[in-house]
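Internal QA ticket QA-208
Title: Verify multi-chain structure generation after dependency bump
Assignee: T.L.

Test input:
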Amino acid sequence: MGAVSTTAAAPRRPARNWTGLVFVAPFLLVFGCGVVAPLAYAAGLSLYRDQLIGGRSFVGLENYADVATDPQFLDGVGRVALFLVVQVPIMIGLALLVALVLDSGRVRGMRFMRLGIFMPYAVPSVVAALMWGFIYGDRFGLVGQINAATGLALPSPLSQTWVLPAIGNVVTWEFVGYNMLILYAALRAIPEELYEAAAIDGAGEIRKALSVKLPALRPALWVATLFSIIGSFQLFNEPNVLKTLAPGSISTHFTPNMYAYQLAFNANQVTYSAAVAVVLGLITIVVAYAAQRMTARQESR
Amino acid sequence: MTDTAATSSAPAGRAAATAPGAPAPRRRAEARSPRRPRTNLVLQALMVLMVVYTLLPLYWLTVNATKSNGELFRSNGLWLGSEISLWDNIVATVTYQDGIYLTWLFNTALYSVAGAVGATVICAWGGYALAKFEFPTKRLVRAIVFGAITIPATALAVPTFLLFAELGITNTRLAIIIPALVSPFGLYLMTVFAADSVPDSLLDAAKIDGANAWTTFWRVSFRLMAPGFATVLLFNLVHTWNNYFLPLIMLNDPSLYPLTVGLNQLNSQVTTGANLQPVYNVVLTGSLLAIVPLIASFLFLQRYWQSGLAAGSVKQ
Amino acid sequence: MRLSRTLLLSAAPGICLALLATGCGSGGTDGGAGSAADRSAEIEAALDEGGELTVWTWSTKFEGAVAAFEKAHPAVDVEIVNAGQSADQYTALQNAISSGENIPDVAMVEYFALPQLALSEQLVSVEEWGLGGLEDRFTRSSWRQMTYGGTTYGLPNNTGPLIMIYNRDVFERAGIEEPPATWEEYAQAAEKIREELPDSRIASIDPGDAGGLDSLIWQGGGRPFQHEGESVTVDFTGEDTAKVNDYWSDLLARDLVAAEPGWTDEWWRSLGDGSLATWTTGAWALGNISSTLTDNAGDFRVAPAPVWDAGDPQNAENGGSGFSVIEGSDDTALAMGFLKWFSLNEASVQEQLDAGSFPAQSAPLEDPEWLSKEFDYFGGQQANKVLAEASGQVARGWQYLPYQVYANSVFADSVGARISEGGSIQAGAEEWGEQLRSYGEEQGFDVG
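Actual output:
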């Protein structure tokens, strides 16, 4: 096992042959089935229109023109954009704070806390949304009990005003521990030398956090953020489960994914739904790519 | 430092070391220095709050899974009822509708194991190839596959459904397992793990011994990649275990549902009253039972994921 | 090099399609059509020969009846499958039919969904199979609702004439002696309840329940949906429609009713502890409340739903469903045989009544024994008399849209949002109507 940690072996140029391609072929096969073919098929479908009366007809790019000006689609995109801008920084910030505190060693019961905070990651989002749905009840749920016990009048988390923050809370609850662990693991991997250097400079805890830890965390932070961004655009499970409790607050086009689902499965507009799915995929890729570019630029500084 | 620490530190260092030219990290021991920093009360309080936040809903679920239906409507949600009906609830859950819950549990396990093991093996082969072989089209494959990391599974769900409907394979187990086999991020991780853990010199030695590539992979490389394999496997497992959107749209036969879809169907039936017998106790107990296997596997396999996580983030 | 790359990329999905396609079989085809007369013999033969049937329903009220059927027809094996609730089941049905896989033989179809399913050719006409003459064995309203474009697509099973379940104790504490008979009295009762019991309301209005509001509009004389052939009309501006909507907006604005989705944990608890005093709903609800709020035995009574004109009581239906044979069934003759026996055989109907179903068949509604049954849960009340009377007063002329499943799915987006924020239900309904008109046009209907 000793050889394992010697990462930098002498440079070697393996012979160029097809063996590697054979090893990677199974992946390419499932990739073709699971990614390329569905996308290609959806892209093809999106050029048609379905009608209850009249059946299927070719319409070219008309569906895309419709998507671009569809107020319900744009409503959903706007909502997840807002969600992204507010929830992602809060969650990552919280995760960062917890990771730094754990790393500082200034609290007791670290092992328990690390596991406890990570635990929600193992809970399926459907179950998470079900639980929080019960807790959010403003008569008999936890919110109602807090109101009864304290005489406060907390608004219902499922009312129109509060439902987006309420969903944000569920998502934060699910993933804060996971992000915390990524950051924590990255912190543990910071080489001792950097701290020694900082100590020689006479840096305090706060300065050490700012000048040593944060810069070293940057790549891990970006990875965490990137995946959170993708997650936000794909928001579906939580609002879909909570919709039964709050039909007047969570519309069928609450998020773009819910809208695609509604179109395909309730509105008999499969082909239009395909166009929405393609556009949604493109938006996600563009946003994720932009985020990656920003990372790259940060790193080259 | 022990061997285990060394193997797990390779991936752990990766995320922090993606910046080119970063020095090979020297890992700090858990208790970093002989002088343990003093406990800070403010930070301690903060962390306790945080743990309460993350554990309270799970506590709530556990407490309420011990109550009968009538008790649920009567008692305080944060405390035990007058009697503990957990066992009755478990019996009610597993016998509900001729044991449909157990069917769902079996399906979830099947989809997760087939999907996750399959995906991880495929990723291990692919990652090994990308890290250790030169072959035509390699750069193209790399670019496409790593570019695909940002295509999220849920964006593919509706297109996949449309294609599978055309092929007539919706509402089959295959329709859930095939998409679960694709894990571009897993491939990326395995590439990293393979590059880090399989020394070229060993491969050259095996070659000189006359072993072919296939034997070398299983006899030499796979063993070295095992910790990485376990990490990717675990996270693929979580991903398929928690999968909801795809089976929701793909399946219409309840005997093929995984737990997530089944539980939500049960819940929406409780809340729309199609059943004469309300089954809140089944929904709650079923939810609790559904998360136990994952939490247990996380506890048992802590050593792997805690380090593997740092190799990048495995969300979804 | 360049060539091989392209080849690889284009081949991968192709190979995959080929692999997948080999795994898929094709569905069976229907036998040729015969005349209605010899169909009866065909059905009998199929029942004798036996086979397997799959029946989709999400309700648990039919297990007894199906067991009775299997006992009477030992050669037939019937599997009940719960493929999801209402809209979910219709989605599943559509998916099954379009993919040709896992198509049920018989499915429960709610009246509101029948036109849409019939239009998209998912249901088999019962007239083709000689069951069209059974009309007078069912209530007039229910038979009509199984009919689309002049053809009947199944047999009615249960109905939901509107009734009001009320909490007698809450009424007493609020000083209300008689359950309100008109909507005017209902509003007065609502005021009393709020005055005397500040934490209670007379009812909650469900922002997610299109069928609930539909039935109130129906009862008030509104007819917002009409269809004939390929032309549909959606009009929420009618006087009677607006009257109903404004009535409820007014109660909401005065905080006399709550705006809360029904059937949730919270809602059941509210009904159980008297926070909500009444539930105006379909007759089928008696079974639901008595098996859910078991601790409340004796608290509730059943009364006719309030009406707009005491001199001319008009009622409506909330919910209700029939069973239809599905296009693509492997054995249509056997499925028809099941449908007929299940719907009309005495033993089967009795099993359904015992399970708490409210029948669409006319026989039980006139059966003195059924009518005089005393319900312990409702304090010994002969509740079926109230229900039967309500059933007799259902107003004519109501229609659903041939895309009502879609319409209901977007109800909460417009009307539900207004209910939740305490705004104008009428404004929400007009917005809903606008959306339904443009959807109808997109789908190729002639929208008037």
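Spot checks passed. Residues 42-300 of chain A form a domain with the MetI-like fold fold (CATH 1.10.3720.10).
Status: verified.
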